[in-house]
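Exercise 3.2. Students should predict the tertiary structure of the chain below and write it as structure tokens, then compare their answer with the key that follows.

Predict this chain's 3D structure.
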Amino acid sequence: MKQLVKNFNNLIKKTIFKVQNKTNNKLLLFRAKNKKNTNLSISKFNKYLITLIFILFFYLFYLLIPILYGKNWVQQNLENELLKDFKIYFSLSSDISYRILPSPHYLVKDSKILKKEDKTESLAKIKTLKIFVSQKNFFNKSKMSLKHIKISNADFRLAVNDLRSLKKNTNNRFSNKKIKINQSNIFFKNDLEEIISTIKITEAFLVQNEENLLNLFNLKGEVFNIPFNLNYNKKFDSLDSEEVNIVAKKLKLDIFNKHNFEQNNVRNGQNIISFLNSKINTNYKIENDIMIFNSTSSQIKNSKISYDGDLSINPFDLNLNINLDNFDLGKLFDNSSILNELIKTELLFNDNISMSTSITTNSNKKNKFFQYAKINFNIIDGKLNINNTILINKKIGTLELENSDLSYKDDKLILNTDIIVNIKDYGKLFSLLQTNKRFRKPVTNILINLDYNFLSKEINFNNIKVDNQQINDELLRIVEGFNDNELNNWNKNKRVLNIFFEAYEG
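Answer key:
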């Protein structure tokens, strides 16, 4: 190869000198004819032009040198360089071609990314992989180095263990050579290899910023047809700080999380979730795989909110206490509420999830029937219930829920429960209902078993007892009038209750 270059250089010199001598001879002849001093700039221009053409020709020849490399050597060498630079196990196909535009690179069709633990399993299938190479050492192929890579039309298939492994890798510094990803997909799988969600990647990149000692990962994509941007950076400073920011403008949602690594594998952090006119601000500490957290200066719309609890990831176990101040609890089960949408996904009906959540509210609004409420939301062995939920009217009495079961089936969100109504002052109850005094009979407790569909607002009464006595069919037909009423329509509900007490014999 060195001899080839030497011969090529000699050829250029001989050609240039030959052209130069020929041009000078013509000039001497021209001067002799005209006996005038001729401008020598013409010969200089020709010399520069020819030199430029030969330099360009030589440069193109130099760029094409990698075509001479053996394909098997290229395939093996690229895999080794990718592993060395990016710590990623690529399996390249033999469909490799070399291109010089827009800059020198190898184009690889149908390659794979393999798992570290098991190199027979793939994490991704890549239709198009471009490996851009440095132009510095084409004469010595053993010194060939990579500049960056570009992945297009790839399918990443990730299970839970894969995510843990990728998360662990973020603790190591990324390569300072950029990885770009375009028009690709990430498929998340459960333990049964079933796809549970998909992220469409429009564009993404990851690289290390050497100047600021930062790992950077940016992604622009779409999940559940909702566009979003994700920005991740990890700084290798004294605190080993890590930041994640997710923005979904369509939902007016902004999630920011920052935490620092401390000694003994302890992490302290802050999480801020902003959506619409609400802001959830959480401080947390993670130690021994358990997160302890509490809120600071948080609000949902115009209502203050405070909460605290602890969370274990493996297995998933959440204890959460929430105080919603004056928040309307009825909105928790609106058709479009976050809780409803979460239940519809059926992710909560999982044997590996346990949850104990209490939501309390104290209302100072005069038009609210219940001044105090505590809703318990529990998940045990894949079953949801709201047992020990209590609603209190300070003047009249309490309403408690027991033996409850919350299920989602055939697009129906159904609550089956026992409702225990303890009446402290039935006189004030009848006064509130404006019941005719002739029908005001003593009542101390009511037991109701019913099915309530949160989506259609339908109620089916299965059993009703008043003061431990089963009601007759006539009273049951009256109570079924609630089926045609919205629970929050006080005037209609009051009319049905008055008809019931008029027919009740006591």
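Discussion points: The longest strand covers residues 195-209. Residues 395-503 form one domain.
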